[in-house]
Amino acid sequence: MKSTSDIKRTTSIELFEKSKTYFPGGVNSPVRAFKSVEGTPLFIKKGDGCRIWDEDDNEFIDFCCSWGPLILGHNNPKVYSKIVAALQNGASFGAPTRLENELAELILSRNPYIDKLRFTSSGTEAVMSALRLARGFTGKDKVIKFEGCYHGHSDSLLVKAGSGLVTFGASSSAGVPESFANETLVLPLNDLAALRACVAEFKDQISCAIIEPIPANNGLLLQEKTFLLELRKICTENNILLFFDEVISGFRVAFSGAAEYYGIAPDIVTYGKIIGGGLPVGAYGAKKEIMAFVSPDGPVYQAGTLSGNPVAMAAGIAQLTECAQPGFYEDQEARTSFFVDIINTHAKAKGYNFELVSIGSIFWLSFDGKKRIHKAEEINPDMTGFKNMHHELLNRGIYLGPSGYEVGFISSAHSREILAHSAAIFCEALDVIF
Ligand SMILES: *Cc1c(COP(=O)(O)O)cnc(C)c1O
Hints:
Blueprint: H1 10-22, E1 44-48, E2 51-54, E3 59-62, H2 77-87, H3 98-108, E4 116-120, H4 123-138, E5 142-146, E6 159-160, E7 170-171, H5 178-181, E8 184-187, H6 192-202, E9 206-211, H7 225-237, E10 241-245, H8 257-262, E11 268-271, E12 282-286, H9 288-291, H10 310-323, H11 328-350, E13 355-359, E14 362-366, H12 384-395, E15 398-399, E16 408-409, H13 416-433
Parallel strand pairs: 3-15, 5-8, 5-9, 9-10, 10-11
Antiparallel strand pairs: 1-2, 2-3, 4-12, 6-7, 11-12, 13-14, 14-16
The structure holds pyridoxal-5'-phosphate (PLP).
The site of pyridoxal-5'-phosphate has 15 residues, from helix 4.
């Protein structure tokens, strides 16, 4: 067994001590604080291709990829040069630019599910705005959400299942009024009986059902296609809008996301992450009848000082142009399967209770490997396995997002050679922890 010593973190620790005096928990987004894995967060100073370097000059193969946006890896030359070219003309105007049209055309010409869209500056903002649109369009207030799906941090969606048999959600964050949470009906994923019962009771009050069609923020909770098809049918029959939150799956499993992957048409869709090429962009879209309700055409208000920011649009154009190349997603999926198969074959041969669950170029470390997990409540809450794995992988030069509930991503910069090398390291780390 290769012996490894813990990586040097002197500079990261120093920076973290400072950052704790500036930001709650020392970070600007909670999961970055490394709370659920060992040690202090690594401060990253540079990325290139599939690699990142921290402030102590440790080098890692990166499987976090900024939590998904970097499907072409870090510092892709085409994205980089397009950003620089846009920036030379100024950073922001607060007026329409040609670049917004270009990114919209690139998306809409390939996407049969939406006629129009609106750009925002984050996924959260896209979902929050689209939910308002669903309510404004239908004139109904309640929303169905599924336990284990994450939709950003707007009040209506920071809601978890209530206790006992109550369908009304309970807020999952302090500061969310109970009255808001009461408008959100929380159901288990992949459970048609629960869905039917809820719709029977509340159907005249439900504006939309929001789901991550590929739930990937709480493990990778792959849904049975029959469940998604039936959800589509039930929504149609009851005048409920089907809302696919594709902030993570959009442009990831296929250009038009899980809708294209499964061939299921949603009524409202949100995008984020990959759409901005690493810069802050989100978007929501729908058929034109629904989008006609958005201000200034319609009564649903939504705006943004930096929405459609030209530099961010340029990054999105450069990235999505690559994603739109023939064979891009087939290649992503083939390289991911190559990686995943090596590790799963090893784990199975050794009898480890572990499986790398994957779809497209997303993977998740399941330490409950024997059964397929469809619902949040089926995840083993003991994250010791992940914590140990994270530690062993960091020491061997592999960076995963610091939480066992988060998925990993493979970019086009992760070549087969890199993936073979990484898979061997995963196998070695598994041998140490089991
Ligand atoms: C990341 C994510 C969001 C939130 O996007 P932000 O850009 O972090 O605000 C919303 N929905 C899903 C499905 C996501 O994965």
